[in-house]
Amino acid sequence: MDQTIRNLREQISLCERQLHALKVQLNNAEERAILEAQAKPEMSFDLSGGGQDAWQMEILGVLGHESPRKNAWPLMPQEYKRYGRQLILPEIGLNGQLRLKNTSVLIVGVGGLGCPAAAYLAGAGVGTIGLVDGDIVEESNLHRQTLHTTEKVGMSKVDSATFYLKSLNPTIKYVSHRTHLNPQNAPDIFRHYDLVLDCTDNPASRYLISDLCVLLGKTLVSASALRMEGQLLILNYPPRAPGDSSGGPCYRCVFPKPPPAETVVTCGEGGVLGPVVGVMGVLQALEAIKVIVDDSHLLSSQSETPSLLLFSAYGTPPFRSIRLRSRRPRCACCSEQPSVSLASLSSGSLDYQLFCGIANPANILNPRERVSPREYAKTLVTTRSVLDRGLPKDHVLIDVRERVQFDLCSIEGSINIPFSQINAPVRSNPSTREQSVASSSSPSTNPDQNAMEVDGKVSEGQRNELVMPWVHFIHKAALEKPIYVVCRFGNDSQVTVKKFKEAGLDLSGRRWVGDIKNGLRGWRTHVDKDFPEY
Amino acid sequence: MADTGDNVHLTVEFSGGLEMLFSNRRKHSVSLPKISPKGTPVTIDFLVKYLCDHLMKDSRKDLFIMEDNVRPGILVLINDSDWELEGEADYEIQPNDNIMFVSTLHGG
């Protein structure tokens, strides 16, 4: 019994000694943790490894640092690591990095240009990045808008991009502006930034952004892209007050008049390749960094001669730099007597949409010359069983989209005569015309064998035709049957019907010639929901 | 084109979509008479009308010219410089000049 009691007492004593030792260790650890927590944001290098020795304090004293608790270095320890590869470039260095850190950049448009531009600027450590966009992510954006992912479809582009950028670089500040820019909201947004990137997709925004940059004294890096080409401009660099001819030109100096609205082609209409617009966005980030780190405006040759960089994926060479004019003495915005002012912006007296015009949908046919997609479908149902050599028997359907689109998808039995060919000029000289037929793609039908035969006949017929290549072809293919014209949205088809009638294809009213309303978009909505949407 | 002493040869380029109006070709060799019918040396102004009448493969002239001038939104570049630095439409064409017409892009 005594033995049992002794054993238990010894065990308790042992545990108490262990407990005491643990408490001492805990106490020491807690003290260290508090010291480290106090020192952490400023600690410039690691002196830990068990308390501060007197000799280390002495060395720090000699080096001029009062205490290791306070940061002795201009950047945080993790910033030296994160930006190390660019910090050692003479063009950047410590001063350049500090400039980047203390700069705020506004990116207007978070699409094909804005995504890569934002990623590289966030990666480079620009202190504040503002993003402006009122759009949501769509599936058709994903091939080029590299910050958005499939699961973000339907989310605001600004939110989607911020989500990505925060994981790329959580140490900088992001400001969200989930709105479309307009003359009323823009000045208050722009004021907070040092530099602006125009990553938008329409002329009205481009004029508004340029005007504001001049009025608020910001340099503007502007880019655009379409199909296989891109353009890049650095405007208002150096940023000087209106009337100061030493400032860089603005968008209005280069383009005083906006292009006619009907000549403006969007990416949705004209198409664009991801890497093409990506290259331009990356170049915007590059030029922005150059502008930010170059306080004296000396590094960049931009300050010497304003220039426009042209990129063309198939160009030889692919990049070309064009010398531009300097500020326009009578510029509406940056000259001595500008008509554009902050007051005129906020009062709404400047209407950028009106200035740039709006391309209205064509409305040139009367209701009798148009059928709805459903009405045409009924016609087709009655004739489908009697397709003759790939073509419907009692009418002709002409699809005027360009060949590449026609090859993507088309209504069965339709014949392709691209709109560009319908607009080919009338040539009176037979030899010239023959040449044009040989070099341009001849009218073609659905690419099945029967249709190809029709195609062959057509080309043969064309060689004897001296006026418009397609007139004779249609006469041959359609005889006196009604002619239906279809296009993508229902605009070009109307123009085509008008041209057909002018060419006498309505046989003085004996033959019906008309179009399908809303084109293939209407066809998909009202008739064939499986018809591809592109 | 045949090289004759009465002609001036130059390269004309189209970009930004304008090439679609000119047989989908970006680069064209063009030969103009040195002296215009008016008896003056040929200028850009003359070239623009010549291109419209002889080289354009699209009847929509308004995509290239408006009111007898190159339409707004097209930059004219003479040997890689904005034509405004060179005298605009009155610039007299020199042998082997490179004249480029660039339509501005707006997509992004």
Automatic annotation (TrEMBL), chain A:
Physiological role: Plays a central role in 2-thiolation of mcm(5)S(2)U at tRNA wobble positions of cytosolic tRNA(Lys), tRNA(Glu) and tRNA(Gln). Also essential during biosynthesis of the molybdenum cofactor. Acts by mediating the C-terminal thiocarboxylation of sulfur carriers urm1 and MOCS2A. Its N-terminus first activates urm1 and MOCS2A as acyl-adenylates (-COAMP), then the persulfide sulfur on the catalytic cysteine is transferred to urm1 and MOCS2A to form thiocarboxylation (-COSH) of their C-terminus. Plays a central role in 2-thiolation of mcm(5)S(2)U at tRNA wobble positions of cytosolic tRNA(Lys), tRNA(Glu) and tRNA(Gln). Also essential during biosynthesis of the molybdenum cofactor. Acts by mediating the C-terminal thiocarboxylation of sulfur carriers urm1 and mocs2a. Its N-terminus first activates urm1 and mocs2a as acyl-adenylates (-COAMP), then the persulfide sulfur on the catalytic cysteine is transferred to urm1 and mocs2a to form thiocarboxylation (-COSH) of their C-terminus.
HAMAP family per record: MOCS3_Uba4
Domain of life of the native organism: Eukaryota
Residues bound to Zn(2+): 250, 253, 331, 334
Needed cofactors: Zn(2+)
Protein known as: Adenylyltransferase and sulfurtransferase uba4
The keyword Transferase appears for this protein: yes
Localization (cell): Cytoplasm, Cytosol
Cofactor binding note of this UniProt entry: Binds 1 zinc ion per subunit.
Region (Disordered): 422-453
A single GO cellular-component term on record: cytosol
From TrEMBL, chain B:
Predominant location: cytoplasm
InterPro entries for this protein: Beta-grasp_dom_sf, Mopterin_synth/thiamin_S_b, Urm1
Subcellular location(s) per record: Cytoplasm
Domain of life: Eukaryota
Pathway participation: tRNA modification; 5-methoxycarbonylmethyl-2-thiouridine-tRNA biosynthesis
Alphabetized SUPFAM superfamilies for the sequence: MoaD/ThiS
Residues bearing the modification 1-thioglycine: 108
Gene Ontology terms describing biological process: protein urmylation; tRNA thio-modification; tRNA wobble uridine modification
UniProt keyword annotations, A-Z: Cytoplasm, Isopeptide bond, tRNA processing, Ubl conjugation pathway
GO (cellular component) term, any one: cytosol
PTM remark: C-terminal thiocarboxylation occurs in 2 steps, it is first acyl-adenylated (-COAMP) via the hesA/moeB/thiF part of UBA4, then thiocarboxylated (-COSH) via the rhodanese domain of UBA4.
Covalent link Glycyl lysine isopeptide (Gly-Lys) (interchain with K-? in acceptor proteins), residues: 108
PANTHER family found in the cross-reference section: RURM1 PROTEIN (PTHR14986)
Family indicated by similarity: Belongs to the URM1 family.
Function recorded in the entry: Acts as a sulfur carrier required for 2-thiolation of mcm(5)S(2)U at tRNA wobble positions of cytosolic tRNA(Lys), tRNA(Glu) and tRNA(Gln). Serves as sulfur donor in tRNA 2-thiolation reaction by being thiocarboxylated (-COSH) at its C-terminus by the MOCS3 homolog UBA4. The sulfur is then transferred to tRNA to form 2-thiolation of mcm(5)S(2)U. Prior mcm(5) tRNA modification by the elongator complex is required for 2-thiolation. Also acts as a ubiquitin-like protein (UBL) that is covalently conjugated via an isopeptide bond to lysine residues of target proteins such as AHP1.
Protein name: Ubiquitin-related modifier 1
Organism for this UniProt entry: Eremomyces bilateralis CBS 781.70
